[in-house]
């Protein structure tokens, strides 16, 4: 929302012919106001206007890092990441539209996730914070952050839909999602089913709501 406010100011500056630094930033980084129009046309049916989908197994995009969102969309387009559902929709987006729609969803406020099995949160926390040295699982927090806030290279996980997380871990372990520079495939492959189920619940419980893009 803060980004949208900045965009309105840029609009005013543009009218009087001032090429301000924020205007340049908007051109290269994507304009959330333009993104809002694209999202409303195509994406809201599944990802919702606020980026927090009510549909099961559909990723939450709100407050996800824009750089990560851009990479995923480009990967779907180029076939480096495959999904029957997303594959059908990403083709309708032009290369130029991608940064705008990413900026839009990155600017949406996240809301708390939904934990469906609190009994496994303790194990989930242990896996997330410490990994499992015995089986060579690194701590998730080492890349995704203590609160699941992520960075531009490592996606935000906080509050993510449990079913979506489990599906991605399955795809990584099976070698079917391969756009992760090999990092997640190794991690997922080493995890037991109980550890995977538990960490997905713990991720849903993480509450950081507004991660800053570095
Ligand atoms: C018919 C439902 C549907 C529509 C419409 C749709 N998506 Fe998706 N989207 C999904 C599903 C399901 C996934 C998870 C697919 C997978 O497992 O790779 C997904 C995944 C994504 C991801 C990856 C998220 C992550 O955390 O890695 C991004 C980014 C994304 N969608 C953006 C968009 C944008 C932008 C649009 C509009 C142009 C859009 N989607 C339209 C259902 C949809
Ligand atoms: C060495 C760094 C590293 C560690 C440790 C790591 N990850 Fe990841 N993770 C990544 C990278 C890189 C990606 C994918 C980025 C991309 O597709 O561009 C990713 C992606 C993911 C995704 C997909 C997110 C989405 O929105 O689609 C999930 C889920 C995930 N990691 C869970 C975990 C869990 C659970 C752990 C701990 C058991 C973990 N990661 C440990 C680097 C790491």
From TrEMBL:
PANTHER family recorded: CBB3-TYPE CYTOCHROME C OXIDASE SUBUNIT FIXP, CYTOCHROME C4
PROSITE patterns in UniProt: CYTC, PROKAR_LIPOPROTEIN
Stretches assigned to the Cytochrome c domain: 30-109, 119-207
Post-translational modification, as annotated: Binds 2 heme c groups covalently per subunit.
Protein name: Cytochrome c class I
Main location: periplasm
GO cellular component, one term: periplasmic space
Signal peptide span: 1-26
SUPFAM superfamilies: Cytochrome c
InterPro entries: Cyt_c-like_dom (IPR009056), Cyt_c-like_dom_sf (IPR036909), Cytochrome_c4-like (IPR024167), Cytochrome_c_Oxidase_Subunit (IPR050597)
Binding, heme c 1: 43, 46-47, 86
Gene3D superfamilies per the UniProt record, alphabetical: Cytochrome c-like domain
Binding-site residues, heme c 2: 140, 143-144, 184
Annotated keywords: Electron transport, Heme, Iron, Metal-binding, Periplasm, Signal, Transport
One Pfam family matching this protein: Cytochrom_C
Gene Ontology MF terms in the entry: electron transfer activity; heme binding; iron ion binding
Subcellular location: Periplasm
């Amino acid at each position: 929302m803060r980004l949208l406010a900045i965009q309105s100011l840029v609009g005013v500056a543009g009218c009087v012919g001032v090429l301000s630094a924020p205007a340049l930033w908007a051109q290269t980084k994507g304009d959330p106001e333009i993104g809002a129009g694209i999202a409303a046309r195509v994406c809201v049916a599944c990802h919702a206007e606020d980026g927090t989908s009510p549909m099961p197994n559909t990723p939450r995009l709100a407050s996800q890092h824009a750089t990560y969102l851009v990479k995923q969309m480009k990967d779907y387009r180029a076939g480096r990441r495959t999904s029957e559902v997303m594959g059908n929709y990403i083709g309708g987006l032009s290369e130029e539209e991608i940064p705008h729609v990413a900026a839009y969803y990155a600017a949406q406020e996240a809301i708390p996730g939904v934990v469906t099995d609190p009994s496994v949160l303790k194990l989930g926390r242990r896996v997330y914070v410490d990994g499992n040295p015995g089986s060579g699982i690194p701590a998730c927090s080492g890349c995704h952050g203590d609160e699941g806030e992520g960075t531009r290279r490592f996606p935000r996980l906080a509050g993510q839909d449990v079913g979506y997380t489990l599906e991605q871990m399955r795809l990584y372990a099976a070698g079917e999602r391969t756009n992760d520079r090999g990092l997640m495939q190794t991690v997922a492959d080493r995890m037991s089913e109980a550890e995977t189920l538990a960490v997905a619940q713990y991720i849903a419980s993480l509450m950081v709501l507004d991660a800053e893009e570095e």
